[in-house]
Input
Amino acid sequence: MSAGMRLDISAVLNEAAEAIEREGWGQGEYRNPRTGCLCTLGAIRVATGVDQHEGRIRDYFKAVDALVKHVGDVAVWNDEPDRTQAEVVAKLREAAKGCEVSV
Output
């Protein structure tokens, strides 16, 4: 996929859920440097490839906006003390189902 191609936001959110299942989930930072665990926003960064392809920043924000509709402030929601990995993965998948595909 070229750096300029827009990503399917539903696929981005599902890939973010898969990244958390694969790498683990954490709070307080995009990626824990010691464990490699990802927060919700860090997983969306991985899923969009925004770190490797600066042109995909719009896709990152579209995916975040889609999730905001389900949880409000994503960083605050992610970092709530009683939040669990299972809840994060489920909410990412729920948001994926609810968003329109844009290619």
Notes: The radius of gyration is 13 Å. The first helix runs from residue 9 to 23.
